[in-house]
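User: Predict structure, ligand 1-O-phosphono-alpha-D-glucopyranose.
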Amino acid sequence: MHQRVRKAVFPVAGLGTRFLPATKSIPKEMLTVVDKPLIQHAVEEAREAGIEQFIFVTGRMKTAMEDHFDLSYELEATLAERGKTKELEQLRAALPPAGNVCYVRQQRPLGLGHAVWCARHLVGDEPFAVMLPDDLVLAKTGCMKQMVDVHAETGGNVVGVVDVPREHTRRYGILDVADDDGRLATVRGLVEKPAPEDAPSTLSIIGRYILEPAIFKHISEIGRGAGGEIQLTDAMVRLIGGDRPFHGLRFAGRRYDCGDKLGWLEANIAFALAREDIAEPLRRILAEYR
Ligand code: G1P
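Assistant: Predicted complex:
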């Protein structure tokens, strides 16, 4: 039996400059896909995977997220008074259990590796998930649940991966693959944002990770990498080849890169079309834009 994944780290300190002016005074993680903020989509995916503790690595200007995962007493009282039981139930169902969300600040934007490292004392000595809310996955079974199930069998480290066109390798962490059964790839190496001609494959990491706690020591030892940032990918390289396996899972489902305007717009359409209450009227509206 491998140790169960109970904790998830959500690095949410980024400035969201690609979404200005929308993100001038609200965090990009509060942008909605249909009617839920990105961060709530991520937390719900984590809960479906059995995650019990939610660790947010935040920064200045991010307090809207803390309010979002707190009880809104006035709102609930008003909804109750007006008999809006459906909305009330929705709010209550989305509220994580008391004491299970914690926040730590990344004081400086030093990179994803550094953001994860800021959570080291809250994670402690156990395997944990990292979830980037920018990456949204539409799937029958949540992406993290699929990864946790693989982890229960294999242990070690698991990252969610998708094949990308070779000209896009510069945007992602890319796998060097030792072995591949079409679903699970055994990882031999990783490169952060390689040029297409240098990429060892076209299998790219999405913002879903299950990592051994040894990652924290590795992060503290690596220097700055691609883009002058402390890269999680560079620290993960040091987890490969030890006594624990390292796998990439081609999950079932579709990823939307909501860090990008077009990806976010597409996610809104895809998630709305997956909703019984909106799909049909939306199809009619979309038909007008052909
Ligand atoms: C980060 C990681 C990269 C990964 C990507 C997934 O990059 O550094 O390895 O492929 O997330 O979204 P970022 O999107 O922060 O540039």
